[in-house]
Amino acid sequence: MAVYVEGVAGVLVFYGAVLAVGVWAGTRRKDSGEEQMFLAGRDVGLALGALTLIATWVGGGYVNGAAEIMFTKGLLWCQAPLGYSLSLIAAMVFTEPMRRARYVTMLDPFQAKYGPRVGGLLFLPALCGDVFWCASILSALGSSLVVILGLDSTASVVVSALFAGAYTVAGGFYGVTYTDVIQLACIAFGLVLSAPFVWSSSPRLPPPADGGAGAGWLGHLAPLDAGLWLDYMLLLVLGGIPWQGYFQRILCMRSTRLARRLSVIAFFGCLVMAAPSAIIGHVARDTDWSLVKGFGRNVTSQEAGMILPLALRHLTPAWVSFFGLGAVSAAVMSSADSSILASSTMFARNIYKQAIRPKASETEVVWVLRIAVMVITALATVVALTVGSVYYLSYLSADLVYVVLFPQLSLVVFWPQGVNTYGCLASYAVGVAIRLAAGEPGIGIPAAIRFPLYDAETRTQRFPIRTAAMLCSLTSHVVVSLSARALLGRPAGRRYDFLGAFPATPRQYGRRAQPGEERGGDGVAALEMGEALLSSGEPRVT
Questions:
Q1: 287 beta partners
Q2: Global confidence as pTM
Q3: Shortest CA distance to 342 belongs to which of 39, 17, 22?
Q4: I want to staple 454 with a disulfide (CB 3.0 to 4.6 A). Which of 3, 104, 162, 450 is the partner?
Q5: 367: domain range?
């Protein structure tokens, strides 16, 4: 296959610019401390914060997925742009309590309540979500480049991962934030520039004889699929909340007021950014690809996931596709670096410092962060190159985040006095067990439980199984926590409290902050959380 020189040039120019900006951003750090590396010193303004949050949400899966679903199923099933945008609004309820407690990661409240080791257990679904999401978009980028540009898939994935890991190591959160601005500008400019050319140059299919052309772009939602549609929408809205990439950005803002505005601005920004991709997908759906010069055949089902780069390559002039393919690469990189940094931050702070070496110095933690970035980048690259079902793994990981982390995070933030370690572990086990029992045909997991409306022919669960598993996880957390308090919270039952959830002698989490003094981000428990636990008579000794 011949190499598409203009497209390769566009990708290389973009990669070089991003790497330069990432290295430059690393020089802007005032010091090399944890809070500088993790949250840019909590000194990010509204404009920069909004741009980096939009770039994080508008990733490779976002723009490619919007075009793909518009091409295959139509507008009714194009849920990701609306669902993920609404998740930014829904997540605003977490903004004030998380910032008031001066947390650094979303795992901090878990470790404040349950201790460093049990709280660290919740790192696993978060890590799976980030690694497989990053791997899936790297894999998609590699497949796109090999088909569209004629490049080797392995080389494309490895080079892309090396670039993302390099500027993340060099700049930390500063590097990711400033490169996000460049990436978002490339996405916006490239897709907005390309959409009119795709629209005007596409040879259209003749309209259906029955005049039902409108149903093509709108799609069809059968009554039996209503539960499945609702399940996916709730997965996107509520499951889009417990991601470190989001909390890292609201916690880095200068004030809570700016953090709230950040989510609102990002909501509208994400919706607007989905429009060009959706338009391109709609046009590609109505295009007679057999008449497209240089293509000359119908798009296969295996190529549907690459419909956006295909349209940019064949339905735009060479100079336009230069910017359009750069936009696709930008979208991929803006998601990959955020996922890598998010998991690396949680590992360095919540696993290494809090659970393994509580006395680790800031310099040591920063080096652990850098090593974690390289390891997670390598892990995502290996998965992208070796696992054939990355798409389904990323979806399953999103399920686990929704089923396991969302109910846990909601309870530990808004009802800390009512939950305990026993409920946490029970909720974790119940959520994972029910979700796995529902099956996942894409990765070969059979359905051990066939919920109502199960389609045996396609092995599809039309019942909202993800939401059902999440609610069961939430309910089990509350029931087991209250039962454990009733049985083990009294003096006679404390001898059987093998997890130490109800210590006989309360221990103060930390001294009360003096007037004008802010709590630092280095402690596991925030002052407000500690006071809430003391008032409930159930502080957790960490």
A1: 204
A2: 0.83
A3: 39
A4: 450
A5: 5-204+217-388
